[in-house]
Amino acid sequence: MSSAHSEKWLVTGATGFIGGRLCEYLSLRHHIPVRALVHRANTAGAARIARLPVEVIHGDLLRRDSVEKAVKGCSVVVHLGLGVGRGISVGTRNLLRASEEAQVGRFVHVSSVAVHGLNPPPEAENEDARLKRVHNWYGDEKIKAERLARASLSRGLPVTILRPAIVFGPFGRWTTNAVKKLHKRQVVLVDGGSGICNTLFVDNLVHAMVLAARHPAAVGETFFVTDGERITWGEYYRAYANLMSFPVRFESLSSQEVLEYWRRQPGCLKASFRQLKSLVFTGKSLQQLARIPIVQLVIDRLALRVFSDFTKERVKQFLKIPQFVLSAGAPGADVPDLATQAIETTRIQHSIERIRAKLGYQPRITFPEGMARTESWLRIAGYLE
What we know:
- By secondary structure, the chain is an alpha/beta fold.
- The protein folds into two domains: 9-164, NAD(P)-binding Rossmann-like Domain (Rossmann fold); 173-197 and 230-347 and 373-385, no CATH class.
- It has helices at 17-29, 44-50, 64-71, 87-102, 137-154, 173-182, 202-214, 233-241, 255-264, 268-282, 286-289, 293-301, 309-319, 338-343, 353-359, 367-381; strands at 9-12, 34-38, 55-58, 76-79, 106-110, 159-164, 166-168, 186-190, 199-201, 222-225, 249-253, 325-326, 334-335.
- It has a seven-stranded parallel beta sheet with strand order 3-2-1-4-5-6-10, sandwiched between helices.
- Strand 1 (9-12), helix 1 and strand 2 form a beta-alpha-beta unit.
- It is globular, with a radius of gyration of 21 Å.
């Protein structure tokens, strides 16, 4: 990839795991001018890109004037930014409109395989599967954002949509969460970990984003992006377990056992009323208030979305919000929540034949090599101690 000084890239979501890596790749390896849109400067992600030779601009995707200022003078826009609630679709709309007005040369919209739900249907093996509501806030917002991107395409904006899968690597949430889970020394695999993981090492995604921004055949297309390897969830977790200095015990619960366990639990409102009544009559602490299911839902689904991962962990530790619920039927074993059960029982592998054929995409980093690079970072960062 040669340097092209006439171009300038705007990266939204630049303080995130993927955005930060894209900024590193463009600025350090290829000396391409990069403008990084930063919403909050007091985050670990902001510190990560502050060391780079990039132009950092503070802004908010929900404000049109802020977005117009960010887009001005940029020839390529890579949209990785998220938002709270409807922030994904509203922020995308603002960015697309500003890009149309600025006549941006290429717009890469980074969506997600989540547009097909947590457990995609068989037809979602390729990109032609029809999009319909998945009743998951993230997936539904990503669907809205994709439709907005296609509307801008019809008005002449050169748009490419990428749908990455399970992106792992240094700083990645799928990586750090796996390690935190393994530190409990016992991991429950749904259906023995036989579900397909659809891994994607972050550098392979960066490679795909560059191709989408530059290849003439990319305009108007939608592409799945994965490593192209058939890795199961069991293989994924065991790859991390092999890095640990202590033995990890793996247990298995069937999908049906997980579903039955959660069916036996009291509903959110009923359980909340019971615990709230107990709180009122006994004067229990704030930490116990946070254990009420409906309070947990508000914290986890709404308020905590605006915080960094570090802040989320600190709040959850203070309030003692459990990540998993202890199973009465399997002493000592944690029962995965229903979202985890859905994700980890996926039976389809998203095809990357289209991006291979049209853009010449070839995953440069294999899963074992990606894990080796991830291990180096995990050791330096202290996650394996």
